[in-house]
Structures are given as C-alpha cells and as structure tokens.
Amino acid sequence: MIYFDNAATTRVIPEVAEVVQKAMTETFGNPSSPYKLGLEAERLVRQARESVAAALGCRPDEVYFTSGGTEADNLAVRGTLQAKSRKGKHVVASAIEHAAILETLKHLSQLGLCEYTLVTPDSKGRVAPEAVLDAMRDDTVLVTVMAVNNEVGTIQPVSEIARLVKERDPEVYFHSDAVQALGKISCRVRELGADLLSISGHKLGGPKGVGALYCREGVRLISQITGGGQEREMRSGTENVPGIVGFGKAVSLALEQMAEQTAEWRQLQEQLLALLREIPDTQVIGDPLANAPHILSVGFRGVRGEVLVHALAAEGLFVSTGSACSSKRDVTSHVLKAMEVDPQVSEGSVRISFGWENTLQEVERAAELIEKAVRELRRFQRY
User: What is the predicted pLDDT for the residue at 383?
Assistant: First the structure.
C-alpha cells in the first residue's frame, strides 16, 4: 500500500498511539473528579495544552480543546457573530475556505443571522490582502482566511491580511483555519496576527476527533456548547482525555521534526512533479514549490478524477480528488472553480499529499501507477 492522502488523515504515529492507549487504560479518570485518578487526568490535559500552546507561541489558557477543526471553525464563526451582534453581522471569507467555514456561513445566512462576502483568489490560489480589505464593511465583525488551502496547498499571506484588517478596524476579529498548516509551516499566532486559529490532531499523526481553537486573551466569544463548564466555560463536555493527550504528543513531535520533515516532503514533491510532468496533457494546479510542501494538485486532461482515484486504489495507491470532507459528493471543487481552472483539467484532478511515512521509492512507484492508469483510462474514454 502507498498512502498519499495524508491531507485527508494520517496514520497515527506509534508514540502517539502509545500515550493514547495509556490514557485510555491507566489514567482513565474524569478530569473534573477531585480525587487522584481525576487529578492525574487533569494533569495530562494540562500538559497537552502546554504542548499546543508552545507550538502556537501563545499562553496555555488561550487554547481551548474541541472535537476537531470543524468544531473550532464553528465556534470561531458562530461565537464571534453572537458576541458582536451589536456591531454587525457581516463576515469576510476567502472563496476557497474549508466547508466548515463556507457551509456554516451559508447556513447562518439562510437563517438571517449573518451576511458574508467571499473573496476570490488568483489562478495560483492566492488571496490578495487588498481584496480582503476591499470586501470589508463598517458592520464587518470577522475576517477568516485559511493559512494553507486543503486542496491545492496554497500558503495564504495571513499575517499581511491580519495587519491590514486591524489597521482598517481594530474591532474586527481575524480568524485563520490552520488545520493543514500546523506542523508544516510556522503557526505562531503573534506572528500571524490571528485573534482566533483552528487546528486539528489527525492531520499530523494524531488521533481523530480532537482539535483546538486558539482564542487570544481579550477576544470574547459566545460558547456554542453549554453544560458542565469545561474548557473554562468555552466548550462544555467531559474532555476527550486520550485524544487530547495524543494531540499534545503529535504536536510536540511535529514541532521537533518540522524542519527535517518539511525538507523531506519538498524533496518528494519535486521528484513526483518531475515524473508526472512527463505524462502528456498534465497540468500542475497552483504553484506547488511555493506552497505547503505536503500537498500537490495535478490535473490530467481526458480523465475523470474519481475514476482515476478508484483505478489507483485498486493498485494499492491512495490519493483523492480533493477535500475528503466533500469527496463523496458529485460536485466540482469550489476551490478549483474559484481559481478558474480549466474544467477539463479540474475534472481530471487529483490531490496527492504526503505524511510522515512516505519515501522516494513510493514516489517513483506512484508515478508509474499514475502514468499507467491515465494512459489506460484515456484509451478507454476515447481521449
């Protein structure tokens, strides 16, 4: 098996699985319980919070654990709109955000709870800071632009956007979905200028079902899940201790190994690019060598992307057509549409994404399998 769909999810790192299992079987107390077993669980949660805070360059009490990136995005958007309802209900977002942002805005708009403006990127998938500024209004309360696009890997000029937003209106909150950025590029929130930042565990060798929202001190959000008052009353519910512990371990490992790991991913990316470009009528989407090192988007004319994905899976090579959160729907990628990619190219596009296990030998074998599958599908589909 060659697994090149790490932007969808990653295999859990063995050291992470070990601490998760230990938290499930040994330190299994409720962190809210006042006796020893509960206090031990609380200590593990605190240590994980400190690990995440170290990666983000923030204070531990600015980190709130959630069930993942989607919940963190929802808390940022919904919590801001409710907290700032007196100022307005307008949100500015990029047109290539994750569905967790776009579908939330759409839903809230249908309920009359928000209005929003989407900013389109250029052909490389980059959002211009000036365009974001132009989309702001006097009643804007939130601007949200992802750090790294999950389909094509474009790194957005988040710090510049945040700076311009604050110069225009210091009361506007700036949020960034950094789910695909954590462990690949620096996510230090002070440098980014973010008031709010969403991250997730399963994109960097951690477990599924756990994530976090960074919320800068002084930023006021309205909680979306009420109950026992956990996470300092921001997100009620008994903490997912094994998941949180695994998340903290995965973040620590990613931070320690980021320089070495990203250099390896860039080497894999460059090698695969060179091999795939030998296939006729192949188009690389975006600007991969200036993007995040772990994501590569390629379109093959005359081939349907989902058919290619299934053909490759039958050979033991796993890639995707785009975001795993929407890949089961028969819809054109909103990211490629916003980038105005030729429909014949976007129809035949696949996303290849690397993780901590991948090797150059796998890249060479994958290129062979892709070339063979594209050639056969083009003949079958009368390309």
Answer: 53
